[in-house]
Fold SDR family NAD(P)-dependent oxidoreductase.
Amino acid sequence: MSAGPVAVVTGAASGIGAALARACAARGMALALADVEAGPLAEVAESLRGNGSRVLECAIDVADGDAVAAFATAVRAEFGRVGLACLNAGVVGPRLPVWEQRPEDWRWVLSVNLGGVVNGLTAFIPGLMKQGSGHVLVTASTAALNPVHGGGNGPYAASKHAVLGLCETLREDLGAAGHPVGVSVLCPGPVATRIRDAARNRPDAAGEPRSPSPSFENTITTIDADTAAARALAGVDAGRFLVLTNPGSETEAGARFARLERDLVVE
Ligand SMILES: NC(=O)c1ccc[n+]([C@@H]2O[C@H](COP(=O)([O-])OP(=O)(O)OC[C@H]3O[C@@H](n4cnc5c(N)ncnc54)[C@H](O)[C@@H]3O)[C@@H](O)[C@H]2O)c1
């Protein structure tokens, strides 16, 4: 990994983000952690400090660009260089057909899953370019590679596809400008986390959740968050752009790309 001694993790209070923080701490990295849930974030930070890690924590909403910029400033002031920036915070909205998703459903999911990543890249990439090193690991999903079986996941799929396209473009931009900053997109399949209870963080302005917690029929085996984080860091170590964590997801994605490829014909 082209990582220095400091890892930034957003969405660090739970699930994959907390596991990424633990995995980076186990490598001896200092942590800069952000999450919208202050209490759980403080608990994660305390437990890492108890194990000897240096931790900066910030309770912020990643959809708030000014707050993310202030977080990046605080990280630079505290630690200087950043080795690995994990832009991981994300939510999933009600599981409904595309035509039943309301504007506030779209706004919430896109503002966190896409807007949060845009804000993180805007805040952290210039510092990585300046220091001439570092790596960005953006959490997308297998929903960036193929639709969830049975549908009902439009805003989430759109946000994760957008993140993948954004990161491919970022990689091109960095390469064209000669900046040695790595980019990886994490595409987990099902991971046992609190994602199905994402509505706990839905701001009032986004409206009341309108469906039960989303459930996804999946042919891919669920893994635990620590396994996902270990595979994420292994993918970064290997210099992969796409980082998959769940066996079987490569087959599903391959089948989707093969389906699309059949239509790569100019009529
Ligand atoms: N769990 C899965 O099956 C799965 C699969 C593929 C991708 N993902 C992605 O993994 C990432 C992490 O999700 P998870 O599964 O660990 O879920 P989780 O709910 O356990 O953790 C997500 C964390 O993000 C935080 N968060 C939510 N909105 C935020 C905001 N506006 N600002 C800052 N923090 C915010 C939450 O408080 C929580 O701590 C997400 O991007 C999700 O889309 C999860």
